[in-house]
Design brief:
With 424 residues, this protein is mainly alpha-helical. It contains 15 helices and 4 strands.
């Protein structure tokens, strides 16, 4: 035990000797978490708050045209420029404005749109009471084509969102006109006047929320995702200084001198493991504190903690073990610092991308979702989700923690096999 303690002291002195490097291991992840979180939060706000510039040409100039133009103006999703009764030259200029990016979309409501809807209603009534009316039922087959044209750079997903909003809105307008026209026809047939207002409030409304198996529920947002995700990224990025530490000792001859002393190689590696595990724990603590007290100063939500703090500690220790074990494996197998730093940096980025740190798993293809299950960062982030979002019990975090611990032992086993059977 005294030898291990002395070896830990040696690692501590080596670590604090490079104060600038030690500071970077804390400052850079904090800057990354802060910037990414704010950027994503502002992006979410932009999607909900920025109005899409569109141009609306109303050639109908009747009930549908007026209701459509007013409704689109009242919708916070659009910023509308209205043109009534445009000629062919104006429509060509409008199309050019959309093509050059002045507007993101153009809408042309053709002449006679309202008349076509009314004719369809009258034709429907004619089918019901043919003896009282004499109207051409061909109106049932009439349809109106509203012309939509988009800026070429508009993404398909965004076009679908806009079209979905417009379809919903046009359906409401058509239903309103059908109701009003139908009421007037019935009034004329029964020779009386009724004052029936079309109900503005829908019968079916949606109550949106999140379900949580364990009681308390936390609203998912950029903070609840980015703080645990980039904490894991920072932990695994520690493989570069850890591997560099091992390689430097090997090339400087320090490791050979240590082996001449009555201390085992395992003790030397355990001291490195302990020291860098402490660093990963401190990284996690600092990033979480920034999520609670600093990030809200930038106008984004505060990080909400779960109630099972023991589960958070256990997941963090498990992730720290996985990260340090990964660093020891790279440092033991790599022959030069260039190899270790290049492989460590690139592999950490790949593990982060596969694990859902950058891209949510639900937008990945089924094949990539299966592959992501192999990333230790995926296990870590799922464990953190149990704590930060689901407020799960300790037992629900154990499977993710055990996978991380298993990854640590696999890394150590690979080091042992490499030292015994491959390296001469």
């Amino acid at each position: 035990m005294r030898k291990l303690f002395a070896s830990i002291q040696k690692e501590y002195r080596i670590l604090i000797r490079d104060r600038e490097g030690l500071a970077l291991m804390f400052v850079m992840p904090l800057v990354l978490v802060f910037i990414i979180t704010i950027l994503q939060e502002k992006t979410y706000q932009t999607i909900g708050e920025t109005r899409v510039p569109i141009v609306l040409i109303d050639n109908d100039m009747d009930s549908v045209g007026r209701a459509f133009s007013q409704g689109v103006k009242d919708n916070n999703f659009f910023e509308v420029t209205l043109i009534r009764g445009a000629d062919s030259l104006q429509m060509a200029e409008t199309r050019n404005d959309v093509a050059t990016g002045k507007y993101q979309m153009g809408i042309i409501i053709p002449e006679g749109t309202t008349r076509s809807i009314r004719n369809r209603v009258v034709a429907l009534v004619q089918q019901q009471v043919p003896s009282m009316m004499n109207v051409d039922t061909s109106g049932l087959r009439q349809s109106v084509k509203v012309d939509l044209f988009f800026d070429p750079i508009t993404k398909e997903s965004f076009r679908n969102i806009i079209k979905s909003n417009l379809r919903e809105f046009s359906s409401k307008i058509e239903t309103r006109i059908v109701f009003i026209t139908y009421s007037r026809i019935i009034d004329a047939m029964i020779h009386q006047t009724t004052d029936i207002e079309y109900p503005e409030t829908p019968v079916i409304e949606f109550d949106e929320g999140f379900v949580c198996e364990f009681g308390q529920q936390t609203m998912p947002n950029s903070v609840q995702h980015n703080v645990p995700a980039w904490t894991l990224f920072a932990m695994f990025f520690i493989c570069i200084p850890l591997a560099g530490n091992i390689i430097k000792e090997r090339y400087d001859g320090c490791l050979d001198r240590l082996k001449t002393m009555p201390v085992s190689y395992i003790t030397i590696m355990l001291s490195k493991l302990f020291m860098f595990l402490v660093v990963t724990m401190m990284q996690a603590a600092v990033i979480v504190m920034v999520g609670i007290w600093v990030i809200p100063l930038a106008g984004v939500p505060q990080l909400q903690l779960g109630s099972n703090f023991a589960g958070f500690i256990f997941i963090t220790i498990s992730a720290g073990l996985a990260a340090t074990g990964y660093g020891i494996m790279i440092g033991s197998i790599a022959k030069t610092y260039m190899q270790a730093s290049t492989f460590g940096a690139v592999s950490t980025v790949i593990l982060a991308a596969l694990g859902g740190v950058w891209i949510p798993l639900y937008v990945m293809t089924p094949v990539m979702r299966q592959i992501s299950q192999l990333s230790p960062m995926n296990w870590g982030i799922q464990g953190y989700y149990e704590y930060f979002l689901r407020d799960a019990a300790f037992i629900n975090m154990l499977p993710h923690a055990f996978k991380l611990i298993g990854f640590f032992f696999v890394c150590i086993l690979l080091v042992y096999l490499y030292k015994k059977y491959i390296k001469h």
